[in-house]
Design brief:
Blueprint lengths: L3 H30 L3 H27 L19 H28 L3 H31 L3 H11 L8
Bound molecules: magnesium ion.
The site of magnesium ion has 5 residues, from helix 1 and helix 2.
């Protein structure tokens, strides 16, 4: 069974994962509206992945006989003028998520909850990929600048993303 501190922290993480899902859904809709279907689809994959993360936390808490507490989801930003702005926002968000996962891992260690540490390992690995993906796209977008053809081609490239990482 999870102790109270760990349970509260894990329940808070469910909310953060759903907030992330909401954040990426907003980006997906924003770029769909701007005619960038590839990026809309890329952010939709992110949206689905974050929902999956939330569900993984829910299932884990239930498996440890903990009580789920679903908190209200705060509002998210609705508009991004440029892709670079959106991916810089994505990177800084993912850095915050990394810090949050690390804090959970530290707390689990303090509470001698080794099962939770083991559960969190996949999220620690996942965050390496999340930050790397955002940084790669920032680099490419900086290279392209406001070249319309470049944006068009990158939109085609990101449209090929079909999988969800976790
Ligand atoms: Mg996540």
């Amino acid at each position: 069974m999870l102790n109270q501190k760990m349970l509260e922290a894990l329940n808070t993480q469910i909310n953060k994962e759903y907030w992330s899902a909401y954040f990426y859904l907003s980006m997906s809709a924003n770029f769909a509206h701007k005619g960038l279907e590839g990026f809309a689809s890329w952010f939709e994959m992110q949206f689905k992945e974050e929902q999956l993360h939330a569900e993984m936390f829910v299932k884990y808490i239930v498996s440890r006989n903990g009580k789920i507490e679903l908190k209200p989801i705060d509002g998210v930003r609705q508009d991004w003028d440029t892709l670079l702005d959106a991916f810089e926002d994505t990177l800084s968000h993912e850095q915050k998520v990394t810090a949050s996962i690390n804090e959970l891992y530290t707390l689990a260690g303090k509470e001698k909850d080794y099962a939770t540490q083991s559960f969190l390992k996949r999220f620690i690995d996942e965050q390496i990929e999340e930050e790397e993906n955002a940084q790669l796209l920032i680099d490419k977008l900086k290279l392209i600048g406001d070249n319309g053809l470049g944006i068009y081609l990158l939109d085609k490239e990101v449209a090929t993303r079909k999988t969800i990482a976790v």
